[in-house]
Each structure stands twice: as C-alpha cells, then as structure tokens.
Amino acid sequence: MSAHKLKLHGQALVAAFQFLTRFPIPIQVPFSSPVLTRSVLYFPIAGAFIGIIVAGVAWLLQLFLPPWPSAVLLLALWTALSGGLHVDGWMDTADGVLSHRSRERMLEIMKDSRVGAMGVLAAVLLLLLKASLLAELLRDDDRLELVLPLIAASPIWGRAWMGIAIAGWPNARQGEGIGALFAGVRKSTAGLSLIIGGLITFVMVVACQNSIETSILITLACLLSTLVAGGVLAIWLANKLGGLTGDTYGALNEAVEAVILLMAVIILGTTYLFS
Question: Are 253 and 86 in contact (CB under 8 A)?
C-alpha cells in the first residue's frame, strides 16, 4: 500500500470517530469523498470504542446500583457518546415515513429541523425499549462474562450495518444531504466492515473468558440479527423513499442496536445453550 493510501486510511479512521462519536480527537482531516468513502471501513471500530466504554461503566454501575437506574444512566452515556446523532435520524425518519404522504413530502418533512409528534413518540418508545433491555441484561449479574460483550457488540453492528446501507441502496436525495458525502462507497468496503465487526465481537467474547464455541455462536447470532433486522428495515425505507438518506442511516443504526440487545436478552434466556 502506497504512502498516499496509508495517509487516506489514517484520515478515514479519524473521520469515522469524528463523524460517529464525540470522542475529542484534535486532528483535522478533510471530509472529502476519498476519506469518507474509506471511513466506512472503520465504522465498527468507532462503535467498538462506544461499546467498550458502555460495557465498562455497566460493570461498574452494577456494583452499586440496581438494574433500572443503571440502565437509564448507561443509555444516557451511550447517547451522549454519539452526540444523539442517530436518535435524531430515528426521529426525523419516523416523522417522514409515518406521515403517509408522498415521497417528495416525506423527504421534505425529514429535512425539517423541527420534530413532530411521530418523531417524539418513536424516540420515547425506542429509548424505553433499549432501557428495558439493558435493565434485563444487568439483572443477570451472574453471567457478566456474556452480558458485557453483548452490550458492547450492539453499537458495533449498528455502525457496521450503516456501511452496508450506504453501499447497498441509492441516495434518495439524488446527491444532496449527508448521504451524498458517502457516494461511491464500494460494496467490498462495506462487506469488509461487516467482517471487521464480526472479528471484534468474537475477540471481545473470547476475552471475557467464554469458550470458542460460545464466541462463534454469539458472533453469528449478531450477524444474523443485523442482516435480518437491518435488511428488512432498509428495504422498507428504500421502497417508501426511493432510496436512503443520512437520517435513515441513523435510524438503521438505532434499530440494529435495539435488535442486538433484544437478541442478547433472548440468548441469555435460553439457558441450556450456556449451561
């Protein structure tokens, strides 16, 4: 790999963190097409940093607080680490697609900075679901070696799926908006991002002293949940809007995160798999 490409990948890694998180990285990189299209490769790494911090704080909080207060504090931290970017996309997407207007009107509603009733309701229900799932997971404090990596995996797969959505569906705004900044992302880059997400998940589960078999099972469960939930929602949104937008990428991230947490609760409830 040439020095120029190495520089681009270094800038892309920084751009992924600056775009998807609120980690203070005092490095200026150009948000140009060569950088942003490569940054998709590093989306799961940015998600892993969020997940590891949230899981670490979860371990600390469960020593002092019951599950529900811990879950609410964790969700506040989780949202703050991404600056609420994806929740905002979730609300704007709900306002648009649930308005049952024409495609053009839906896209106009999504561009409006004001949040409507459907957006507020969608956000409240999403946050309630995620908080309840976190509380249920934290209730199982005898199996933190499974709970913590599953919590950490959620933001990894949400951001990995964003890359798949960017590469897999056209931009509904025809060259406008945030989605246009990522025009030209290769499907191979997005696919490799998904593989990176799987490798990080596997390593995290193994690092928490789980068996190879359990780690493979959890990684495959995360992959399958992401493909099904992310795929169904992306297809539905693309059919409604004629493609995807920056807001829908955020919405897809939130949906996949919630589904991974739901899958984690189901897995931990299936006790015979881990007895």
Answer: yes
CB 221 within 8 A of CB 205: no
For residue 60, give every residue at least 6 positions away whose Cβ sits within 8 Å of its Cβ, in sequence order, or none: none
C-alpha–C-alpha distance, residues 21 and 158, integer Å:
13
Q: What are phi and psi of 33, to 5 degrees?
A: -60, -45
**Tokens coding 72:** 């609410």
Phi, psi for residue 31 in degrees, rounded to 5: -85, 60
> Measured between alpha carbons, how far is residue 178 from residues 91, 239, 244, 245 in Å?
16, 20, 11, 7
| Helix locations, 28-84, DSSP H | 33-39, 43-61, 67-81
pLDDT band at 161 (very low <50, low <70, confident <90, very high): very high
Residue 271 has pLDDT above 60, yes or no: no
Residue of 272 and 213 predicted with greater confidence: 213
**Element counts in the chain: helices (H) and strands (E):** 11, 0
- Rounded CA separation 190/14 (Å): 17
| CA 171 – CA 177 distance, rounded (Å) | 9
Q: What does the alpha-carbon distance between residue 111 and residue 182 come to, in Å, rounded to a whole number?
A: 18
Check: pTM over 0.85? Answer yes or no. Answer: yes
Task: Count Cβ atoms below 10 Å from residue 143 Cβ, excluding itself.
Answer: 14
Helix, strand, coil tally for the chain in percent (to 5): 80, 0, 20
Length of the chain: 275
**Nearest CA among 201, 198, 189 for reference residue 8:** 189
Q: Which residues contact 217 (CB under 8 A, 6 or more apart)?
A: 273
